[in-house]
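Lab channel / #folding
Pinned by the channel admin:
"Please post every new chain as: sequence first, then the structure tokens as a reply. Keep commentary short and put observations after the output so the thread stays searchable."

First post following the new format, from NK:
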Amino acid sequence: MYQRKLSFSEAIDHAIRNNYLNFSGRASLSDFWWFMLFSLMALFVSVFVGGVLGEIVACSVGVFVSVFLFMPMVSMAVRRLHDVNRSGWWLPVALTGIGLIPLLVWFCAGSHMDYNQYGDIPNLVD
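Reply from TO:
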């Protein structure tokens, strides 16, 4: 058995269509980082397109994309914490600044390769 890595398009589809507001379960390492890359690219593109179209449009487009991606990013982060056997309630420690360090370590850690209280191992292939 091994944990299959999701492709970029699978991760985006999985995050937006299937888990937009899902705070339960687990998210694999590839699932999390592909979605974070997509979110960053979407924000850059929205700012660039908005900048080309004008200041008012830039603000509107940027705000729209930010609002649209905020909740899936939070739910993905919570599910990623679940995957490393941590509670999603660790996420607010990011507000302290120094709390970003343990979160980054946990976000980069491999999956807890056993069933835990948050569910089965994601993307497991026999």
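NK: The helical segments are 8-18, 29-53, 55-83, 100-108.
TO: also worth noting, The chain has a mean pLDDT of 88.
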